[in-house]
Structures are given as C-alpha cells and as structure tokens.
Amino acid sequence: MPLQPPKHQIRALHTADTLTVYQAFPPAIAEPAAAEGRFPEAFQRDRMTWIKPSFLWMMHRSDWGRSPDQERVLALEISREGFDWALERAVLSGYTGRVHASQAAWKRELRQSPVRVQWDPERGPDLRALEWRTIQVGLRGEAVRRYADEWIRGITDVTALADRVRRERDAALLPVETAYPLGTAAAARVGAAAG
Q1: What phi, psi does 120 have (nearest 5°)?
Q2: In the beta sheet, which residues pair with residue 24?
Q3: Are 82 and 150 in contact (CB under 8 A)?
C-alpha cells in the first residue's frame, strides 16, 4: 500500500524550471490561448483567477470540462520563479492560528495581498474526496498581470485527455504530480509541508 502524502503538500507536474497548473475556460478564451500561447484580450485581468496544480481537482471543479463556461481545460506551464513569487506573498483564505499571528493580522494581510491560497480535498480518478489536501492559488491585481504576461511558458488544451480519463478511469493516463520543493518560509506562509 503506497504511503499517504502529508495532509498539506503541494504536488504538481513540474520540471527544474516550470510547474503546470490547470484552468477551465469557455472556448472563446481557451482556443486562442492554446493557439497563441498567451491569453486573449477577453481574459479578465481585473478579477481574481484561480490556478490549480492538481489535474483531478480541476476535473472535479469543471466536471471533466463539461460545466458551463468551463468546456475547455488548459494545462498552463508557468515558471517556478513566478509560482514561488506567488506563494511567498500568499495569504490563506481562512484564518488559522498555526499560520497567522492574530485574526486582525490575517484580515490585514488578506486585504493587501495579491495572492490567496486555499486547501481543498484532493480527488481520486473517480473524483471522490481523498484524506489529503490540494492547493488552489487565487491571483488578483499585480499577480494576475505577472501570471498572464510573464510566467506562462506554454499552454496546452487537455480537454480530450480530461474526457478520456473520465471515460476510462485509467490512472496511468494522469499527469505525474510529485511533491513540489517548497522553501521553509513559503511553506510556513501557506501552511504546507516544506520540500
């Protein structure tokens, strides 16, 4: 039986320089983004956008790319430098005493930070909730601009893969997501296991 990962550990498909995150969009945004390797003008930079390193959590969130306005699932390869920048400035979406000095300090940081983080139950190939968590990273303001204009290294439409995994439930088709090496300071900031 494989060992269960730590409850709060970032797992992702990553290389020495990049990390893959997932988002789902309507075709009007996803198709030009995948074709051109960057977001089109229709991508809203003035609102929070959530990126997810977990392929299966994105499948849960988008119902395998079948939810309205989430019909296309994109794999966005971004720079690790950018992802690390986001985590170093992140604030958890909920107060927790093991991370924050006080509720007042947490509220102040939440208002000021361009990055919000939350931990949700990871999902298995059947999309049932697992006992450990996966991270979602919400970007707004400066963070959205950096993400869209500086961090993206490649965009791939993985909608067909999503549909195939949904139909076949074959774990061998899934992207290989391993523990992401996280510095101690960033790990403490987001309440994650350091790596």
Answers
A1: -125, 155
A2: 73
A3: yes
Which tokens go with 177?
A: 């997501």
Residue keyed to tokens 């999902």: 123
pLDDT, tens only, 12-35? 999 999 999 999 999 999 999 999
Q: Which tokens is 81 given?
A: 């430098």
**What are the DSSP calls for 114-167, one per residue?**
SEEEEEEEEE-TT-PEEEEEEEEEEE-THHHHHIIIIIEEEEEE-HHHHHHHHH
Q: What single-letter amino acid sits at 147?
A: Y
**pTM check: above 0.85:** yes
Give 3-state DSSP helix, strand, coil % of the chain, rounded to 5. 35, 30, 35
Do residues 7 and 132 touch, judged by C-beta distance below 8 A? Answer: yes
The DSSP symbol for 63 reads T
Tokens of 91: 């604030």
> Do the beta carbons of residue 193 and residue 135 sit within 8 Å?
no
The pLDDT assigned to 114 comes to 97
Token pair in block for residue 100: 């924050």
Query: Is residue 182 within 8 Å of residue 87, measured between CB atoms?
Result: yes
